């Protein structure tokens, strides 16, 4: 049976768990002595252990002995597929160069583009798989992966195909996002509008080949203008692809309001978001994806306007933004702590940000909570309450990981990846 195939409709009853379901109602969707029944890839029943109905069809019963169970974690913003790394650039920044200066002098994203183009398909896949396994070892069951380091039609397609291959070869759901409008490639120096014209023409082919689920752009002073972003979005809309945006990361371009006009699934980063942008996101139901790893690693000082987002009722997700330049983070659990410490989210807000709101940022209605009818994607933790995982850092006590009703070894994938791929 392949990793992706749904198991037969085997029913397993999981009993005596501390359940953080994130379903509406009680804080955390908390059930103190909870139980749930998985049927194949789905949750068939979730509730208090005392209310468990007698079920003669149950094939197996597992006593979780009070362990904490949460939905599988969802990393709604990654740039997982790329060649090389930027450790040298990290040293340059330590000596005083800024992220923008490095980008303007041909380093930054363009350095990763050169390394990505030089990598073979198998190399791109293997390095991305190694990173994905590290995320999975901490209970991650769904990730988003962006292109954006190919910046030429064939190379963008290779990166998206590597992301699709992750989903075929690992017990993991992968949503792909086309981010051709990430930076200007060297062939188009001085001709950003011509590049956007070209990038617009690639989308239909990506869609026809089943390579893309959404379209993103980097709207900023070192990225693309709102007018150029709008052209990419217009083509995405014509093709029926949802959009999202790297918005107001380094400056306020009013990108969030633009994205909201296109009904964006999410706007991401948002350190420089205005009140107008936040109101527009609320009106369009757009999720704010906050990225504390990039804020920390770039030593930003301007905080995303969390109180305004909270007051406006904009759902907030938290993601790693894993990429080689601004956030080489491979722990979504660490992002829980950073979201609380740096951005002052409550632990429950941070958790909703990697579960229910992260699912919404990807347009996925079948996951992110533990509830009957949703996917049986969950993690079992060596903890009594999810707050502990936001409180500790450098500590990821994932004990068991279940993807679509199938248990996968939570720890071994990362260790075996390191062994295989360094040899
Ligand atoms: O999300 N802001 C643009 N893109 C990435 C960084 C890419 C890079 O530096 O390689 C981000 O932070
Ligand atoms: Fe990003």
Protein model, in words:
The protein is an alpha/beta fold and 423 residues long. It has two domains: 3-71 and 369-422, Urease, subunit C, domain 1 (Roll); 74-361, TIM Barrel. Helix content is 38%, strand content 21%. It is built from 16 helices and 16 strands. Strands 1, 2, 3, 4, 5, 14, 15 and 16 form an eight-stranded mixed sheet that branches. An eight-stranded parallel sheet has the order 6-7-8-9-10-11-12-13. α4 (121-136) packs across α5 and α12 (332-343) crosses α13. 56% of the residues are buried. Fe (iii) ion binds next to loops.
List the helices and strands and how they pair.
Blueprint: E1 11-20, E2 30-39, E3 42-48, E4 60-63, E5 68-71, E6 73-75, H1 87-94, H2 99-104, H3 109-118, H4 121-136, E7 140-146, H5 153-169, E8 173-181, H6 192-208, E9 214-219, H7 226-239, E10 244-247, H8 255-261, E11 266-269, H9 275-284, E12 287-290, H10 292-297, H11 306-312, E13 316-318, H12 332-343, H13 347-353, H14 356-361, E14 378-381, H15 387-391, E15 398-403, E16 406-408, H16 412-422
Provide key terms for this protein.
423 residues, Urease, subunit C, domain 1, TIM Barrel, 2 domains, eight-stranded mixed sheet, eight-stranded parallel sheet, 16 strands, globular, binds N-(iminomethyl)-L-glutamic acid, binds fe (iii) ion
């Amino acid at each position: 049976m392949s990793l992706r195939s749904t198991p037969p409709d085997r029913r397993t009853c999981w009993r005596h768990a501390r359940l953080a379901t994130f379903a509406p109602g009680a804080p955390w969707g908390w059930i103190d002595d909870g139980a749930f029944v998985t049927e194949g890839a789905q949750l068939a029943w979730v509730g208090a252990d005392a209310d468990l109905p007698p079920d003669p069809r149950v094939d197996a019963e597992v006593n979780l002995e009070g362990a904490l169970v949460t939905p599988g974690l969802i990393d709604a913003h990654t740039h997982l597929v790329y060649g090389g790394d930027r450790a040298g650039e990290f040293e340059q920044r330590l000596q005083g160069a800024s992220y923008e200066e490095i980008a303007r002098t041909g380093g930054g994203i363009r350095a990763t583009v050169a390394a990505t183009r030089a990598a073979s398909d198998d190399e791109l896949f293997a390095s991305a798989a190694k990173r994905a396994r590290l995320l999975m070892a901490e209970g991650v069951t769904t990730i988003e992966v962006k292109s954006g380091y190919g910046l030429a039609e064939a190379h963008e397609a290779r990166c998206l195909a590597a992301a699709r291959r992750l989903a075929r070869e690992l017990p993991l759901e992968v949503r792909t996002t086309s981010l051709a409008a990430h930076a200007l490639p060297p062939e188009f120096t001085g001709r950003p509008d011509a590049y956007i014209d070209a990038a617009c023409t690639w989308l239909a082919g990506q869609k026809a080949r089943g390579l893309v689920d959404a379209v993103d752009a980097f709207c900023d002073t070192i990225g693309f203008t709102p007018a150029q972003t709008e052209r990419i979005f217009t083509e995405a809309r014509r093709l029926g692809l949802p959009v999202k945006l790297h918005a107001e990361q380094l400056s306020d371009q009013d990108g969030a309001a633009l994205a909201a006009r296109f009904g964006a699934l999410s706007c991401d980063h948002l350190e420089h978001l205005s009140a107008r942008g936040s109101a527009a996101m609320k009106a369009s139901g757009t999720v704010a994806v906050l990225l504390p790893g990039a804020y920390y690693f770039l030593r930003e000082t301007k905080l995303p306007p969390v109180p305004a987002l909270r007051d406006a009722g904009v759902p907030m997700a938290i993601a790693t933004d894993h990429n080689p330049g601004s956030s080489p983070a491979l722990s979504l659990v660490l992002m829980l702590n950073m979201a609380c410490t740096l951005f002052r989210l409550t632990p429950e807000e941070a958790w909703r940000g990697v579960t229910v709101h992260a699912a919404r940022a990807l347009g996925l209605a079948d996951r992110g909570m533990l509830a009957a009818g949703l996917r049986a994607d969950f993690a079992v933790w060596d903890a009594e309450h999810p707050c502990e995982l936001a409180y500790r850092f450098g500590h990821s006590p994932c004990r068991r990981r279940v993807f679509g009703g199938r248990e996968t070894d939570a720890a071994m994938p990362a260790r075996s990846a390191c062994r295989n791929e360094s040899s």
